[in-house]
């Protein structure tokens, strides 16, 4: 019986494959051990202590790394998440593990009340979730997982099972979340974009009256240093937005907060290209999806790119006084570099900004800071207000390789691998020193380390026409 047949015959065999050629204590083995330790049997938690449930975009990045050591488990990671999809197509940002105590994480299931408050939107009744979403990396992840072992994927019907769900997810975003009317998707909560307390949110959040401090308890402060986490004021505003969204039945369009974010939309475009390749693999036409991705790319450049600054910015669609652009330089404004359809002059400007004084990659910083080094709100340790994260490094490494910048890509790859090792796979790090911040043994750091280890060439990273272009 060949390997694929064995895996199909024994679907419970999810152990990751340790590389026998890897020396003891190697980065490969250590990264694999992190993923093994955070595996729950059906999905992977980001961190048992700080994030004890399944997170949406975490699972997508985790699957991208798992494909190198267990394609079966990578498929299961995505399938478990998609099993919690709502009837309206949204993929919730958290899928709660019922065995975890309610006080282990806030907001907990009893806050979101998904099965009751989300009933009109088609929330599942058999599993508890949050009601907001996260960046749509999932179709890209599914395509990369398929390519890791096409024989296993085809034998298990993996793409045929996930394609309708991913298509519904994209329909939800494109039809329900075009709140600015310009073709791009808006996020309705900072947690949806994934870069929770980035300075880009400060201005639109200032309109939001915070929930009273006595109305919630922050579980994150029990496991993370307060000076590294969002402030109580910011958290109160997050809770207020989530409460209002819940109390409105998770209906879109009526909230105080609506922002078009460049990274969220760039990841949607990348995944739209991936959906086109999945459709082609399944024997369907892909032309319309590629065309949609190209239209979205044009809208992204038209609405969010500032040529004078050489990068993309968020747009506050509730801003009735100015042009809506939030001119805070965050790493989100560089992430569109991973798109194949960007004009050459935009690519050149983004690379120049990445290497320039505001981000200092290749000169002042070890990894890409999450916020402008020269910005007034810069803090090298406070969550998304300055520290470097491994998922954004991975995205930019892909973009640099895609656009013919192998030297810059290789330097960023080597820095990410070295920092992952020395920080014990930290959640995020000081961009100057690489000092660990947040949780250690963080799953997407370990997973993307594996992907970078297996991607020393352009072909190895999966960046070629069959991925995004």
Automatic annotation (TrEMBL):
Mannosylglycerate hydrolase MGH1-like glycoside hydrolase domain span: 51-445
Pfam family for this entry, one: MGH1-like_GH
TM annotation in the entry: none
Assigned keywords, A-Z: Glycosidase, Hydrolase
InterPro entries linked to this entry: 6-hairpin_glycosidase_sf, 6hp_glycosidase-like_sf, Glycoside_hydrolase_63, MGH1-like_GH
Family from the record: Belongs to the glycosyl hydrolase 63 family.
PANTHER family xrefs: MANNOSYL-OLIGOSACCHARIDE GLUCOSIDASE (PTHR10412)
Entry protein name: Mannosylglycerate hydrolase MGH1-like glycoside hydrolase domain-containing protein
Native organism: Streptomyces vulcanius
């Amino acid at each position: 019986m060949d390997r694929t047949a064995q895996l199909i015959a024994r679907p419970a065999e999810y152990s990751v494959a340790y590389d026998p050629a890897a020396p003891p204590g190697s980065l490969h083995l250590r990264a694999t051990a992190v993923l093994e330790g955070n595996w729950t049997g059906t999905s992977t938690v980001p961190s048992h202590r700080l994030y004890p449930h399944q997170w949406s975009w975490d699972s997508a990045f985790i699957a991208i790394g798992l494909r190198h050591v267990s394609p079966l488990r990578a498929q299961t990671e995505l399938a478990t998440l998609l099993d919690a999809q709502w009837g309206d197509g949204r993929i919730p940002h958290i899928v709660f593990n019922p065995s975890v105590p309610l006080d282990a994480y806030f907001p907990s299931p009893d806050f979101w009340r998904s099965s009751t408050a989300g009933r009109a939107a088609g929330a599942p009744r058999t599993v508890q979730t949050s009601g907001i979403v996260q960046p749509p990396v999932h179709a890209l992840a599914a395509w990369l997982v398929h390519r890791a072992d096409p024989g296993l994927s085809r034998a298990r019907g993996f793409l045929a099972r996930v394609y309708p769900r991913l298509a519904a997810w994209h329909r939800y975003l494109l039809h329900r979340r075009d709140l600015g009317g310009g073709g791009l998707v808006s996020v309705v909560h900072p947690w949806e974009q994934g870069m929770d307390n980035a300075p880009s949110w400060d201005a639109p959040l200032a309109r939001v009256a915070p929930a009273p401090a006595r109305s919630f308890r922050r579980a994150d402060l029990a496991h993370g240093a307060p000076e590294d986490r969002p402030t109580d004021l910011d958290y109160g505003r997050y809770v207020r937005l989530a409460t209002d969204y819940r109390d409105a039945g998770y209906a879109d369009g009526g909230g105080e907060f609506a922002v078009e974010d460049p990274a969220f939309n760039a990841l949607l475009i990348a995944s739209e290209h991936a959906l086109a390749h999945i459709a082609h693999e399944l024997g369907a036409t892909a032309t319309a999806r590629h065309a949609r991705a190209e239209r979205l790319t044009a809208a992204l450049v038209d609405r969010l790119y500032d040529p004078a600054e050489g990068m993309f910015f968020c747009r506050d669609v509730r801003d009735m006084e100015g042009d809506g652009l939030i001119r805070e330089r965050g790493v989100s404004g560089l992430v569109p570099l991973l798109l194949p359809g960007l004009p050459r002059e935009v690519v050149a400007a983004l690379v120049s900004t990445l290497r320039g004084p505001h981000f200092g990659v290749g000169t002042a910083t070890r990894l890409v800071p999450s916020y402008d080094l020269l910005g007034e709100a810069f803090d090298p340790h406070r969550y998304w207000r300055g520290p470097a994260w491994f998922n954004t490094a991975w995205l930019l490494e892909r973009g640099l390789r895609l656009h013919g910048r192998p030297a810059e890509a290789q330097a960023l790859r080597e820095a990410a691998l070295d920092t992952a090792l020395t920080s014990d796979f930290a959640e995020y790090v000081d961009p100057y020193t690489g000092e660990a911040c947040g949780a250690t043994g963080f799953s997407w750091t370990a997973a993307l380390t594996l992907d970078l280890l297996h991607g020393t060439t352009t072909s190895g990273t999966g960046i070629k026409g069959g991925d995004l272009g």
